[in-house]
């Protein structure tokens, strides 16, 4: 039976497996038993800070949105940060538009929406 947290039922982790560990983030796959008996698989992003979302751009760069109010662009091949943009409030939702050349980030209160036009990260 799933446990309770502050009066709310929470999922019980049945097993956990680290599937990627890099210098910027890691990914863990958890098999869980959700409240009401549903079994599910979750892929969880791990990071030493408070990363909220981590979309991958078509050219392979990754964008991290953190509670420290930053959007950071990473080149995972070289394991280096490429750029950092500081926002007025933490972005809690980030989406890459279908063109792959634009990104939209919004805060949790719906007060700020950032629309960014991206340049290719390809240095060839």
Quick overview:
This protein is an all-beta fold. It folds into 2 domains: 10-46, no CATH class; 51-117, Thrombin, subunit H (Beta Barrel), CATH 2.40.10. Helices cover 0% and strands 55% of the residues.
Report on the structure:
- The mean pLDDT is 82.
- The protein has 2 domains: 10-46, no CATH class; 51-117, Thrombin, subunit H (Beta Barrel), CATH 2.40.10.
- The chain is mainly beta and 124 residues long.
- A 4-stranded antiparallel beta sheet has the order 6-7-8-9, with no helix packed on it. It has a 3-stranded antiparallel beta sheet with strand order 3-4-5, with no helix packed on it. Strands 10-11-12 form a 3-stranded antiparallel beta sheet, with no helix packed on it.
- It has strands at residues 4-5, 8-9, 12-21, 26-33, 39-46, 51-53, 62-66, 70-75, 80-86, 91-96, 102-107, 113-117.
- It has no helices and 12 strands.
Taken from the alpha-carbon principal axes, the silhouette is: globular
Percentage of residues assigned to helices: under 10%
Care to count the β-strands? 12
What topology, given as strand order, has the largest sheet?
A: 6-7-8-9
Rounded mean pLDDT is: 82
Going by helix content, strand content and strand pairing, the class is mainly beta
- Spans of at least 5 consecutive residues with low confidence: none
CATH class of the largest domain: Mainly Beta
Helical stretch tally: 0
Secondary-structure element string: EEEEEEEEEEEE
Described by its quaternary structure, the protein is single chain
Number of self-contained structural domains? 2
Largest sheet: 4 strands, antiparallel
Strand content: over 45%
Question: Separation of termini?
Answer: 54 Å
Corresponding CATH architecture of the largest domain: Beta Barrel
CA radius of gyration is 17 Å
At CATH level 3, the topology of the largest domain is Thrombin, subunit H
């Amino acid at each position: 039976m799933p446990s309770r947290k502050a009066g709310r039922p929470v999922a019980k982790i049945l097993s956990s497996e680290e599937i990627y560990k890099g210098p910027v983030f890691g990914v863990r796959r958890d098999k869980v038993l959700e409240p009401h008996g549903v079994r599910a698989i979750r892929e969880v992003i791990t990071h030493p800070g408070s990363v909220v979302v981590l979309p991958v751009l078509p050219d392979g760069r990754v964008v991290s949105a953190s509670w420290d109010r930053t959007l950071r662009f990473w080149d995972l091949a070289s394991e280096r940060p490429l750029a950092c943009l500081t926002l007025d409030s933490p972005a809690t939702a980030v989406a890459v538009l279908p063109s792959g050349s634009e990104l939209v980030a919004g805060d949790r209160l719906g007060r700020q929406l950032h629309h960014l036009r991206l340049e290719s990260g390809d240095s060839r």
